[in-house]
Write a structure and sequence with these properties.
The structure is a single chain. The protein is an alpha/beta fold. Helix content is 52%, strand content 7%. An eight-stranded mixed beta sheet has the order 3-2-1-4-5-6-7-8, sandwiched between helices. Strand 1, helix 1 and strand 2 form a beta-alpha-beta unit.
């Protein structure tokens, strides 16, 4: 392990957990010299003498030695747990760095923290990048999707490294490009993770219907997901679902059937839902997927409830192949809604934070390396290439036509789930959003009347110009004073 700084490293990585280690190996495989450090020095020794042996990877026991090993401008990437650990490390590094050096946070930071850190580090004369990295262990090693944002002046100095290690689409374009100022990169990664929640929940609901209503075995479902992965639903998550369903435990039985039905989460889905509430963006499917994980975690309560709460007994007497075909269409239509909502959130956030997000370009960043990579994303890129100012993804001709083609099957699936007592909340909420979005008149007129009745909150009228506000003394006992604030 290095103790002094004869060598000149291209970049330093601090934090040698799964993602950090694999990103370092990826960088070294692309010809870069990487300096590494970890709070637990034993891990540095183990890595340098193990997986990193013989590679252009230099281990350092102290932060000063690590920093001295770097070429100018120094590039230091933090791969540590999000939160206080990042702030503490920044404070340790700032005195060791010079003006124009670059700090990079590659963890799953909450984007408001990245906004704050960018401003703080820039105030010290350095540059800061908050970058989303998606792809898990394999992606980090072989090529992840990378979503950098922060100090734009830093991008030319990290671009050669990031684009070299990123995944690539078939034409060779790297799944990495500059996203935008301050927290834009981590915001886009957060939305990616929220969409990931939605995709996973939709797939799990399809699995649930096959298992509970159709009585299909894991092997039967494996063949269905295999077929789906060879068509429009081709994606990494469908692919791994196919493989999971075929995997056998030591006794030859499907391992998936032995896994406890209580889901974990790290918070990025919740952050996405909160950001949607903050911007007034309806993000119903992703929020439902977050709630579904919370409900799954109530395992003890659900077991007790199952003993006393009764619903219909699932029975299916129809055409199984027809229902499976409908299920594929319903999954695709619901997926369109999920992505449309995610893109609507990014559009709203871009306006709120003054980010110039390239929505079509973001689809390209997600085409390879990341967890939600799929053929579907190519259609989103095409939609924004045709109409860069596209207001809503559901209005793009391709997605409008696909929803129309899938709509009858989608409704049959949701209706079958409801009447059979099969839990399918994400499909149902996607359909509910679609029906609301396509309605030129919703019952919010009654809601506004209710708000004005009990709180004098004012309302607009269909026969008067927008922005003109009215209050009615509904009971004859109220006065003419109305609320001073109106939010539509």
């Amino acid at each position: 392990m290095q103790t002094q700084s004869q060598a000149r490293a291209d970049i330093a990585v601090i934090g040698l957990a799964v993602m950090g280690e694999n990103l370092v190996l990826n960088m070294a495989s692309r010809g870069f010299t990487v300096a590494v450090h970890n709070r637990t020095v034993a891990r540095v020794v183990r890595f340098v003498e193990g997986r990193a042996r013989g590679k252009t990877i230099l281990g350092f026991q102290t932060l000063p030695d690590l920093v001295r090993s770097l070429r100018a401008p120094r590039r230091v990437m933090l791969m540590v747990k999000a939160g206080a650990a990042v702030d503490e490390l920044i404070e340790q590094l700032l005195p060791l760095l010079d003006r124009g050096d670059i700090l990079i946070d590659g963890g799953n930071a909450h984007f408001p923290d990245t906004i704050r850190r960018t401003r703080y580090v820039e105030s010290k004369g350095l540059w800061f990048i908050g970058t989303g990295v998606s792809g898990g262990e394999e992606g980090a090693l072989l090529g992840p999707s990378i979503m950098p944002g922060g100090s734009a002046a830093a991008w030319p100095h990290v671009r050669p490294i990031f684009q070299a290690i990123a995944a690539r689409v078939p034409d060779g374009t790297p799944c990495c490009d500059w996203v935008g100022d301050d927290g834009a990169g981590h915001f886009v990664k957060m939305v990616h993770n929220g969409i990931e929640y939605g995709d996973m929940q939709l797939i799990c609901e399809s699995y649930q219907m096959m298992k509970e209503l159709l009585g299909m075995s894991a092997d039967d479902m494996h063949h269905v997901f295999k077929a789906w992965n060879e068509g429009d639903l081709n994606s990494y998550l469908i692919e791994i679902t196919r493989d999971i369903l075929a995997f056998k435990d030591a006794d030859g039985l499907p391992l998936v059937d032995k896994i406890l039905d209580s889901a974990g989460q790290k918070g990025t889905g919740k952050w996405t839902s909160v950001a949607a509430l903050d911007t007034g963006t309806p993000l119903t499917l992703i929020s439902e997927a977050v709630s579904a994980r919370c409900l799954s975690a109530m395992k003890t309560e659900r077991v007790e409830a199952a003993r006393v709460l009764r619903g219909p007994t699932p029975r299916f007497t129809g055409d199984r192949e027809a229902l499976l075909a409908d299920l594929a269409q319903a999954l695709y239509a619901s997926k369109i809604v999920s992505y449309a909502q995610g893109y609507d959130l990014m559009r709203a956030a871009a306006a709120a934070h003054h980010w110039r997000l390239d929505l079509g370009g973001i689809a390209l960043l997600w085409r390879g390396g990341c967890i939600i990579r799929s053929a579907f994303l190519g259609r989103i890129k095409e939609a924004y290439d045709r109409e860069p100012a596209l207001g809503h993804l559901l209005l793009a001709p391709f997605f409008r036509d696909r929803i129309a083609a899938a709509q009858d099957a989608w409704r049959r699936v949701v209706a079958t789930a409801v009447t059979s007592g099969i839990w399918m909340p994400a499909h149902a909420t996607a359909l509910g959003y679609f029906d609301g979005f396509r309605s030129d008149r919703l019952p919010a007129n009654l809601l506004q009347a209710q708000r004005d009745y009990f709180g004098a909150h004012l309302y607009e009228r269909v026969d008067r110009p927008r922005g003109e506000l009215f209050h009615t003394n509904w009971t004859g006992r109220g006065g003419e004073t109305a609320s001073s604030a109106y939010v539509a």
